[in-house]
Structures are given as structure tokens and as C-alpha cells.
UniProtKB/TrEMBL annotation:
Residues 1-19 form the signal peptide. Residues 754-896 form the F5/8 type C domain. Pfam families: Cytochrom_C, DUF7133, F5_F8_type_C. PANTHER family: LARGE, MULTIFUNCTIONAL SECRETED PROTEIN, LARGE, MULTIFUNCTIONAL SECRETED PROTEIN-RELATED. InterPro entries: 6-blade_b-propeller_TolB-like, ARM-like, ARM-type_fold, Cyt_c-like_dom, Cyt_c-like_dom_sf, DUF7133, FA58C, Galactose-bd-like_sf. The keyword Hydrolase does not apply. Residues 636-727 form the Cytochrome c domain. The keyword Heme applies. Keywords: Heme, Iron, Metal-binding, Signal. It comes from Algoriphagus pacificus. Coiled coil: none annotated. SUPFAM superfamilies: ARM repeat, Cytochrome c, Galactose-binding domain-like, Soluble quinoprotein glucose dehydrogenase. This is Discoidin domain-containing protein.
């Protein structure tokens, strides 16, 4: 999917270089308060009245002080700098601030060291969150061209966005991003080199959520294992030269922040929970419960701001008005640079913007289990504190210059409108200090250490050769290593395989060896003999990485590795043994339950005991879930399809649906994450019935898909139902009756399809446009501050009726042009599905023809019909009375 779009630039917000400022005055000396209404600064201050019906003796309100108080006033960046309480030797300096940027929420650096800034310009612009989903947020890109440490040159890379969720640099002048209430990740590229994205391509689907903007997917991150992880998603995705693949994972329990350490351990930052999550074990293996992983006292913040302005109210306030329990956290970084003291390297840091602190986390590994604590709990302090109530640290990152950058949203309100509603404690405190007036600011700070100047070498990785990129794997700064690895994998230049293998075997730099190993894995050039050599290495960290990387080889058919996993599970190092158990479990090797039981009896290390026990529980639970996940007819199709795939299809498509390697390519395409497989089922049914030859979307494969029409309808329906719902895929089931219908319609065909020919026959999903007119007989309010808009049915947010469903309720779409509509598909969720419905089409919206009548059910619903007419109107109408509303999301219209 590829199309060109316009980037909208508003003249009133055009970014200017700092050189335009008055030379005698630093831009960081300009105070936001200079443009504020001076009446706010003068007494008498307004009196804030308590909402009606408040119980002042309740824990939330007891002890509240609403004495008329001077408003909180924003100051310049250089003034705010004086508010920081830092450990000896450290300093904070601004590198970018308002008015050049507004409401910064996260940053990322690309391979040339340019800094992308996610600007959430609609976040809480008033106390009621009005306009929160207006398309006025942006992603800007900044450079320090004169190398003085200040990012003075900027451009709006991507504008007119609806509360964007993340930035992933993805090669020269390219990023990945996604908007709120959206299910698709897009790749945006600046083709003409003017600094503004002008090409938009679909990268992957199935990662979105809807609802409160604080509870949606964020921080998609390319990790050391070459998979990408995000918050709120129980799946991970991966770019390959043959497409993006998906795999299920555990729940990260994160909200705003994903980062990794020097060994690829992922950390997810919980927001409302206020604590790090997902750090115990890789979430690729599921979730594991470890009692006491947050040590006693970890949840106590040491804040210097005493306004008692936090959502839980006075029950979480100290007597002096400071916060006594972490209640919000955002952004995180494992510091991996080389221009701060060594004791910070590989330590986890995150912001608690409600407490106005940055915390350093000390982690301790005990017999394979990790326990964490505030590094400064003994002194009842934090790594960074501030006395400025507007300091809001929401992200941090190891920078190319070896220091740490901290994103400060610098604003009054830091919690979304659902928590500032009329009658709430937080709203009352915000109004007392008039903090809802402080918007539109934001600073990015550099944390430095005395005697350790920043690295002034400018990255130029996009212009470097592959051989030059290899040397960066030995860089002491983890940012350089990560970027070099990613770029080499995107380039897919295999001329460096020999050099990478040598580095993985013989380098004296442990971290370089690990990155070389994973770069080989990402180049699809990982050799089994190298893996087995590293499994025997004297360094447990190398053994662990070799075990993890070997999983890819197993997925592509190297089943002999099962014996290695069993042997490595006997390791005396609990961390190595645990990784071997994880690999054996996730790959479902034969007799995996026996391996867990024997390890449980032989190894008494705490971590090994916990992992073995909980894996056995998961295996038992999976057996129970499999029996109830699908309806009996679906389970029968899925089970038969798995048997067919494992014994026949996996030879070419790979045992894990990733494709089987053949030279530098694959024998057949991967199924995992395939939009062709998850899209309209007619594509896959016709492919199996009649075969497919030639390239697919410009990619050639060694094998040929032969016709399978000698098999019956149930055979074909089974294998397609399996591959559409396995390997991280989510598609509707294919039933024998549908296969029979397609078989009859194409009975005269006596040759294979070509891809171009087949794709012309298959109904195509119509992309929703702003000029589609959606109406409904009933629509429920979709949350605070939103409107009743039936068009929500096309997105992840969804639409539903305001009342319980009744016969005759309707939902209608008017298209601007005629189309030969052939099918609809929508997700009705688990409970609010239409009990029965019809589909009718019309040329003029007056004369209607009923084309389908269906029984609704939970999950994906489909209605198909065959009609030669081109129409502009389509109507879905309920036919049954039910106790619950009727809902639809991800509504898709298909046309031939």
C-alpha cells in the first residue's frame, strides 16, 4: 500500500532557527510567563470552592488546604535549571525548548544523530481535555549543525497528526509512527530530501488500541533481538526483507516507555502503577510472577514539591504536601553511554512527573531472579529532584554524544481529562494553583558530568559502508551499537558476514560479540556451527545470547537444537539454565514437560524452580484454553489445519510460518503477519485451489505453489483457518461451504494464477475517506469530550448503539463514488454483537436491495454476496431484539 500525501505547515507555527533570536539574549532565558496575562500574577487570588457533596473526612479529602494561593508561574529554561537538585558533579543544560517545540513527549535519534521530537500539541490544553484528538500534533526533526551542543535547526518532518504514539527511525529520512485510535503502523519517508515526509506506506496492522489516550500503544522499539516491542501489546513484530512478521508474547504491562539494557533485557514503564514492568524475563516467553521483585520502600518517592496536587488525593500525601506513593511514571532509559560515570552504565532510569523526580534503579540478580530498589533509598533521596512544580520528566534517552537527555513537558497538568473531571480532587488542586493555564511549553535537557565532556563526533551512519558500520559494534556507547546493527540489517549487505563471525568468536569486547551475533541473525546468516561454538563459551552472557539467537534456526527447521536446550538446562549457572528452559518451552520441543520436571528436581536455584513450576502451569492452562477458545466447529478446523500444516505446508513455509530459507531468500513466503493471508479469504482459497506462480509484489521465491484442488473443501478450509489464526495472525475462519462456492465459480480454470491476475479478482478493502458519510439510527456517546460519530466504526475506537438492540436499527454508509460492493467485515467484540442482521445496497439511498442475511456472533463477522451492480449506499440493519447494544469496530467494506 503506497500513496503520496501532503504535509501541512501552519505559518503561525513555522519553526525558526535559534540564530533569529537577539544575540545578546539566550533563547533559554526567555520566560513563558512574559506572554501571560499579568492579572494572574496579582492578588487577590481566586477562591476555589469545594464540589458539592464532598466528605471532608474521607481519606481523599481529609486535610486539604484550599487557601487562596499565588498561581504557579512558568519560568525560562535557564531559571528552571536552578531548581534542580543533582548529585555532586552533575549538571543539566537545555538543548532545545519552547517556542521551537511544544509539549514534547518523547525523542529518538536517527543514524545521523538527528533528533526526532514527538510533540503532543493537543494534550490537556485545558482542564477538560477539549480538542485532544484534533489533528494538530507533529513530529519535528532537529540538528545541531554548528556542533555547539544546542539543536538550533529544525523542520516539521510530519504534521497534522492525531496524538501520535511513537517514533521509530527506520533508515535514511524514514520513520515509523502510528496515531491514536488507529490500528495501523505507517512508514513515512522524505523522498525529495526537503526534511518533510512526503510518502506514506502501510508497515503493519494489528497493534492499535482505542480509548483513553494514556492507555494506548506507545514506544514501539527495535530491540537487540531484532524484534520490535511496544506497550499494551501481547505481541511483537519484526521487519524482514520478505515482510513484517508477528508473534504472540506476554503482556508487557507498560504504559509509556520501553527500553533495553546492554544485554537486550527489556524494561517497560508502567504509568499509573508508577513502577517498572516486564524486566524480570523476556516477555516473548510470557508473564511470570516473582514475589518481592520491587523491594520494600521502592514505591516511596522523595519529592521536593509540596502542593498535594495528585490524583489519589490527601491519602497519598505526606504531612508537608509531598507525594508519599508513586502514582504516575513516564519515559525510561537504561543508560548505555560513555560520558557519565561508569556506575550509571546499564542502570535503569525513569521519570515520575507527579513527584517531579527522575529515579535511578539498582537491580540485583539472585539465583536467576531480579530485584530492584531506588538507588538512593538510604539517603531518602532521588537521582534528580526539582523544586519547580512544572518539571515534568516524561522521557529520557542515551544520546549519540554519550550523555543522557531528559524530556521535560514543563506544564501544569500531567494527567488526562478522565482524572480532572468536575468534582474530582485533582481538578480542585489544579484550579487552586491555576495550573491549567500553563500549556504549550517543553524543554529537552542534557545531563552531564564534570570532567567528562560530551562526544562531539557527529554520526554519519547513513553514508557509511557496511564495513564502516561493523566497527561501531565495538563503540562504548550502546546507542551507536544499536543503530549500526539496525542499519546493517535494513541494508541486508551480506559481504560483512565473515567479519561479523570473526567478531562474534574472537573479539575481546563482550558487547561487540553479542551485537555481531544478532546482526548475523538479522541478516539471516547465522550458522549452526557458530551457535554451538558460542553455547560452549566460558562467558554465561554469551551462552544466553546464543540460546536466544538459536531459536530462529529452530523455527526454520534446525530441530536438532532441542538436544542442546536439554543439555544447557543442566547448567550450573541459573540464568543459563533458565534461558534454556525458555527456549525449549516457547519452541514446544518434544517432551518439554519432562524437561521441566527433571530440571525442577535437579536444580534448586530459586529462579530455576520458579520458571520450571510456572511453565508447567502454563502448559496445563494452555491445554484447557485450547478447548474453549474456539467454537467446536472452529476448533475442529483449527486442529485439522495444524496437522496438515505441520506435515505438509511447513516444508516450504517453515514450521513457524516464517518461510524456509533457500540461499539468500525463502522457498515460499512467510505467513506470520501477512496482510495477504489475513485479508480477504478469497485470495488464499483461490491460491490453494489453483496454485500461484511468479513473483509476489515484486519478490521472487524459489518454490511454486501448486494447485491443491485434489483435496476436499474441508481440507482447504482447515489449513486456511489455521494459518489465518496462528503465527500472530488474526483472521476470520474459512468454512467448507465458502470453499465450495469458490470452487464452483472457478471450475473452468485449468492453470495457475499469477499474482497480478489473482489480486485483480479478489475483493479489495476500501480505505475509509473523510468524504464517506456514515449515519445511524442510534449512536452512543464514545467517552468524555467526544461526539456521537458513526464513523468511529471504521477505526479501532468503534461505534455502538445507545440503546439495547431492536429490530430495524440501522447503520448506513454513503460513498462518494459507485463501487461493486461484495462483502463487509467488522469486529463486534466479545458481547455486544448483533444477534441478527441484514445487508442492503442502493444506488440512490431510496431503493434498496437486500443482498445478505446473517446471524451475528462475537469477534469477526462477515457478510458476503455476489452482485454485478455498482452502488453508493450500503445499510446494515438489525433483525433481532437483544439485551445489549450492537457494536462494530474495524468495519471494512470490500469491493471488486
Amino acid at each position: 500500500m503506497r500513496f503520496v500525501f501532503k504535509t501541512v505547515l501552519l505559518a503561525s507555527t513555522t519553526l525558526l532557527a535559534f540564530s533569529a533570536c537577539e544575540p545578546e539574549r539566550s533563547p533559554f532565558d526567555v520566560s513563558p510567563s512574559e506572554s501571560m496575562d499579568p492579572k494572574r500574577l496579582k492578588a487577590p487570588y481566586p477562591v476555589v470552592e469545594l464540589p458539592e457533596g464532598i466528605d471532608l473526612e474521607s481519606p481523599t479529602w481529609k486535610g486539604i488546604d484550599l487557601t487562596p494561593t499565588a498561581p504557579v508561574i512558568p519560568v525560562s529554561a535557564n531559571e528552571e535549571k536552578k531548581s534542580f537538585v543533582l548529585k555532586p558533579g552533575y549538571s543539566m543544560d537545555p538543548v532545545l525548548s519552547e517556542p521551537q517545540i511544544r509539549e514534547p513527549a518523547s525523542i529518538q535519534f536517527d543514524g545521523n544523530g538527528r533528533m526526532y521530537v514527538l510533540e503532543l500539541r493537543t494534550y490537556m490544553q485545558d482542564i477538560d481535555a477539549n480538542g485532544e484528538l484534533m489533528p494538530t500534533s507533529r513530529i519535528s526533526r532537529w540538528e545541531d549543525k554548528d556542533n555547539d551542543g544546542v539543536y538550533e535547526t529544525g523542520v516539521v518532518f510530519l504534521d497534522s497528526l492525531v496524538f501520535p504514539r511513537f517514533i521509530v527511525p527506520f533508515g535514511p529520512n524514514t520513520i515509523l509512527s502510528m496515531e491514536s485510535n488507529e490500528d495501523h503502523v505507517y512508514k513515512f519517508t522524505d523522498v525529495d530530501g526537503d526534511g518533510k515526509a512526503d510518502k506514506k506506506e502501510l508497515f503493519s496492522s494489528g497493534l492499535g488500541r482505542s480509548g483513553n489516550v494514556e492507555h494506548q500503544t506507545s514506544f514501539l522499539t527495535w530491540a537487540m533481538d531484532n524484534w520490535m516491542y511496544s506497550t499494551y501489546n501481547s505481541k511483537r513484530i519484526r521487519w524482514t526483507p520478505d515482510g513484517v512478521i508477528h508473534e504472540p508474547s506476554g503482556n508487557p504491562w507498560g504504559q509509556w516507555g520501553v527500553t533495553q539494557d546492554n544485554y537486550g533485557k527489556l524494561w517497560f514503564q508502567d504509568g499509573a502503577g508508577g513502577v517498572p514492568q516486564g524486566f524480570q524475563f523476556p516477555i516473548a516467553y510470557g508473564n511470570f510472577s516473582v514475589k518481592g521483585q520491587w523491594k520494600d520502600g521502592f514505591r516511596v518517592p522523595y519529592s521536593l514539591v509540596k502542593l498535594a496536587d495528585f490524583q489519589p488525593g490527601m491519602k497519598e500525601a505526606n504531612p508537608d504536601g509531598s507525594l508519599n506513593n508513586v502514582t504516575g511514571a513516564a519515559g525510561s532509559d537504561v543508560y548505555r553511554g560513555d560520558r557519565l560515570p561508569k556506575e550509571l552504565v546499564n542502570q535503569y532510569f525513569y521519570g515520575e512527573p507527579v513527584g517531579r523526580i527522575v529515579r535511578q534503579v539498582n537491580s540485583e540478580n539472585v539465583e536467576g531472579l531480579t530485584y530492584i530498589q531506588n538507588s538512593y533509598i538510604d539517603s531518602k533521596s532521588e537521582f534528580i529532584q526539582s523544586t519547580d512544580p512544572l518539571f515534568r520528566p516524561v522521557d529520557m534517552a542515551t544520546a549519540p554524544d554519550g550523555t543522557m537527555y531528559i524530556v521535560d513537558m514543563y506544564r501544569g497538568i500531567i494527567q488526562e481529562g478522565n482524572w480532572t473531571q468536575e468534582g474530582s480532587y485533582l481538578r480542585t488542586k489544579i484550579q487552586q494553583y491555576q495550573m491549567d493555564d500553563v500549556i504549550g511549553n517543553g524543554r529537552i535537557w542534557r545531563l552531564s558530568y564534570e570532567g567528562m565532556p560530551r562526544n562531539t563526533e557527529k554520526p554519519r551512519m547513513y553514508e557509511e559502508t557496511s564495513a564502516e558500520l561493523v566497527r561501531h559494534l565495538e563503540n562504548p556507547n550502546g546507542w551507536w551499537r544499536d543503530q549500526a546493527q539496525q542499519i546493517m540489517i535494513l541494508n541486508q549487505d551480506k559481504s560483512i558476514v565473515g567479519e561479523l563471525e570473526k567478531m562474534a568468536k574472537t573479539s575481546k569486547n563482550e558487547l561487540a560479540r553479542i551485537h555481531a551475533l544478532w546482526t548475523l541473525e538479522g541478516l539471516n546468516s547465522l550458522d549452526l556451527s557458530l551457535v554451538r561454538e558460542l553455547l560452549k563459551d566460558s562467558n554465561p552472557n554469551i551462552q544466553i545470547q546464543a540460546l536466544k539467537a538459536s531459536e530462529t534456526l529452530y523455527k526454520y527447521g534446525e530441530k536438532s537444537l532441542a538436544a542442546d536446550y536439554k543439555e544447557m538446562a543442566k547448567s550450573s549457572d541459573p540464568n543459563v539454565a533458565i534461558q534454556a528452559l525458555f527456549s525449549a518451552y516457547i519452541l514446544k520441543i518434544e517432551q518439554v514437560e519432562d524437561l521441566m520436571k527433571s530440571t525442577l528436581a535437579a536444580n534448586q536455584a530459586q529462579g530455576v524452580q520458579l520458571v520450571s513450576t510456572q511453565i508447567l502451569e502454563k502448559i496445563d492452562e494452555a491445554k484447557k484454553v485450547a478447548s474453549v477458545k474456539y467454537a467446536p466447529v472452529e476448533l475442529a478446523l483449527f486442529t485439522k489445519g495444524k496437522s496438515i500444516f505441520d506435515s505438509y505446508c511447513s516444508t516450504c513455509h517453515g514450521p513457524k510460518g516464517l518461510g524456509s530459507p533457500a540461499g539468500d531468500g525463502l522457498i515460499a513466503p512467510a505467513f506470520s503477519g501477512s496482510q495477504r493471508i489475513q485479508g480477504h479469504p478469497e485470495y488464499a482459497v483461490k491460491t490453494l485451489l489453483h496454485g500461484l506462480t511468479g513473483d509476489l509484489e515484486g519478490k521472487e521465491y524459489e518454490g511454486v505453489m501448486i494447485a491443491m484442488n485434489m483435496n476436499d473443501d474441508e481440507y482447504i478450509a482447515s489449513v486456511l483457518s489455521y494459518i489465518r489464526n496462528e503465527f500472530g495472525n488474526e483472521g476470520s475462519f474459512v468454512y467448507p461451504e465458502y470453499v465450495a462456492q469458490i470452487r464452483e465459480e472457478t471450475k473452468d480454470r485449468d492453470s495457475n494464477y499469477s499474482f497480478d491476475e489473482l489480486i485483480q479478482e479478489v475483493p479489495k478493502a476500501l480505505a475509509p475517506q473523510d468524504n464517506w458519510i456514515a449515519t445511524a439510527s442510534s449512536t452512543a456517546l464514545q467517552g468524555v469530550g467526544s461526539t456521537r460519530d458513526p464513523s468511529y466504526a471504521f477505526g479501532y475506537k468503534g461505534w455502538k448503539t445507545e440503546e439495547s438492540q431492536e429490530p430495524g436499527m440501522w447503520y448506513q454508509v454513503e460513498l462518494p463514488d459507485d463501487h461493486q460492493l461484495a462483502e463487509i467485515q467488522f469486529n463486534a467484540g466479545k458481547e455486544e454483537f448483533p444477534l441478527g442482521y441484514t445487508v442492503s445496497i442502493s444506488k440512490d439511498g431510496n431503493s434498496w436491495t437486500e443482498v445478505a442475511k446473517e446471524t451475528g456472533h462475537a469477534g469477526l463477522n462477515n457478510a458476503r454476496w455476489k452482485s454485478p451492480d455498482e452502488v453508493r449506499f450500503i445499510r446494515i440493519q438489525s433483525t433481532e431484539k437483544g439485551e445489549k447494544p450492537w457494536s462494530m469496530r474495524s468495519l471494512t467494506l470490500y469491493a471488486r
